[in-house]
Amino acid sequence: MSRIDFAARRQAMVAQQIEARGITDPRVLAAMREVPREDFVSPGWREEAYHDGPLPIEAEQTISQPYIVSLMCEALMLQGDERVLEIGTGSGYAAAVLARLAAEVHSVECIAELAELATKRLASHHCSNVAVHAGDGSLGWPNAAPYDAIVVTAAGPDVPAALRAQLKIGGRIVMPVGERNGLQELLRITRTGDHGERREMLLPVRSVPLTGAQGWPG
Ligand code: SAM
């Protein structure tokens, strides 16, 4: 399939899967129209790249559903000048979207093979404001803290204390929280003070587990 056909499918994806479900932030919609999802899936899955769901990637992991990527990005309420932390780089697709929405993105992936592949994909798409780090993201990435916003693309039993500690006051964490096997709640947690927070439930979701020291056992 040619680049033009993929571009047409991408525009249709944004209209039918994202705008039609209520995403309105024009910067998020523009970013979703720009990032070529076909370049972030495994080579054998390029034809399915605009499928309305997650798809398999290397190391038996998944690239998230485009609608969920757009919903999480909108919920972060980014203006363009923020430093953002993503936990769960996976393919690098969501990091490429975040690169268009924030000034600086740090993304942590616990599977070294995925971190390496995502680094290459992001470089080939000129996402020079994204740094991918291999490690246990349940502990955050303290070297670049504090963050204006944190997005976790895997589900944990609760929000890791390390992530709360690395968030600025007024900052937002968007993360699925709940049972390891089953439905979770996609939450937005706003840090309102040194110890205070506000929690909003956005959507029931089914996500892969966040493993690691402050997640589920690996
Ligand atoms: N954002 C990704 C994308 O755009 O392709 C999708 C991520 S996938 C749904 C969840 C990812 O979280 C997997 O790649 C998994 O290896 C990673 N993960 C799980 N626990 C982790 C941890 N403690 N630290 C870092 N990454 C973790």
Query: Roughly what is the average pLDDT, rounded to an integer?
Result: 97
Count every beta strand, where a strand is a DSSP E run of 2 or more residues.
Answer: 9
Number of helices, where a helix is a run of at least 4 consecutive DSSP H or I residues: 6
Determine the strand fraction and express it as a percent band. 25-35%
Query: Would you tell me the structural class of the helices and strands?
Result: alpha/beta
Task: Give the biggest sheet.
Answer: 7 strands, mixed
| Order of helix and strand elements from N to C terminus | HHEEHEHEHEEHEEE
Question: Which compounds are bound in this model?
Answer: S-adenosylmethionine
Distance between the amino and carboxyl termini:
38 Å
Strand order of the largest sheet: 5-4-3-6-7-8-9
Unreliable sequence segments: none
Which percent bin holds the helix content?
25-40%
What would you call the shape? globular
Radius of gyration: 16 Å
